[in-house]
Amino acid sequence: MIEQIGCVMESVDQMVRHAVWNAGADGIVVGISGGVDSAVAAGFAARAVGPERVVGIALPSAVTPTADLEDAEAVCRHLGIEFRVMSIEPVIDAYRQYPGLTESRYVLGNLMARTRMTLLYAVANRENRLVCGTSNRTEYLVGYSTKHGDAAADIQPILHLYKTEVFEVAREMGLPARVVEKPPSAGLWTGQTDEKELGATYDEIDAALRALAEKDWVAENKVEELVLKRVRASAHKRVAPPNLLSTR
Ligand SMILES: Nc1ncnc2c1ncn2[C@@H]1O[C@H](COP(=O)(O)OP(=O)(O)OC[C@H]2O[C@@H]([n+]3cccc(C(=O)O)c3)[C@H](O)[C@@H]2O)[C@@H](O)[C@H]1O
Ligand SMILES: Nc1ncnc2c1ncn2[C@@H]1O[C@H](COP(=O)(O)OP(=O)(O)OP(=O)(O)O)[C@@H](O)[C@H]1O
Ligand SMILES: [Mg+2]
Q1: On the chain, which terminus has fewer CB atoms closer than 10 Å, C or N?
Q2: Residues 124, 42, 144, 94: is their CA dihedral positive or negative?
Q3: Fold of domain 5-183
């Protein structure tokens, strides 16, 4: 796996460097949650353009555990990138002024993801940076992300990696043990975990995605059925919005 990962890193480096150079950007900004995806994505970004050109921003909400904030700082320290904190609470508070808008944790959670996106883009605008995405292949395929929220970015250094591979790369990078070992969570409400919400473990989901890709997306067991349902339902997140221009 080491050689294989080394090989992937080479091409990720080139892709990231090319994107930054092509955009005439001075650097990269990435939301650092204290989770493994943002840690690995930031690691690739730092490796590609140098840690001094990358800034990691923690964007805590009222439900963000203190431990996650500490882990976010530890990730930035480990990678040698600048660490900043920008609370999203003042913005979320403003949304609370709209009657009923923030009552559902589902709606509120997606608002949080989109609020983080707008702040990262504001920093990118101000400092001539590109926004680094943190989506992996698994969440991209099953649509486990907020459309125009955490899914929105200028570069996607880990989009080719299944979640189980992200963990392997995280260990290769020597990222803090707490970051690699914690259960993946979108952190949009207290107690949320990816595997609970998705209804299967990442080991099961990745095995199902690999199997489905090999047999032309025909499901043969319960997990494959569940995964295929999510892949189908989220197709709109992976294509341009329905329009007449692309059909003419
Ligand atoms: N067929 C279709 N064609 C075109 N557009 C369609 C559509 N169906 C829905 N839409 C649009 O998409 C919207 C629904 O998509 P979206 O707003 O994304 O919402 P949705 O996919 O329903 O929810 C997002 C999911 O991702 C999870 N998440 C979010 C953020 C971060 C993470 C993480 O892992 O960190 C996970 C979150 O917990 C939740 O399960 C609809 O309101 C509608 O506007
Ligand atoms: N509190 C936060 N501060 C900064 N960025 C955040 C925060 N919460 C979410 N994000 C951004 O949204 C992205 C999507 O969250 P997601 O949970 O999928 O990734 P992760 O937290 O890096 O890893 P994991 O999936 O293992 O929890 C994060 O990678 C990060 O860029
Ligand atoms: Mg997370």
Answers
A1: C
A2: negative
A3: Rossmann fold (3.40.50)
**CA proximity to 42, closest of 95, 114, 120, 96:** 120
Alpha-carbon torsion, ordered 186, 232, 238, 60, to 10 deg? -10
Is residue 33 annotated as involved in ligand binding? yes
CB of 55 closer than 8 Å to CB of 129: yes
Which ligand sits closest to the CA of 108?
Answer: 1
Residues near ion ligand 3 (Cβ under 5 Å): 33, 35, 185
Is residue 184 over pLDDT 80?
yes
Q: Spell out the domain ranges in the chain.
A: 5-183
pTM of the predicted model, to two decimals? 0.96
Task: Check: CB of residue 91 under 8 Å from CB of residue 97.
Answer: no
ipTM score over 0.95, yes or no: yes
CA 78 to CA 76: how far, in whole Å? 5
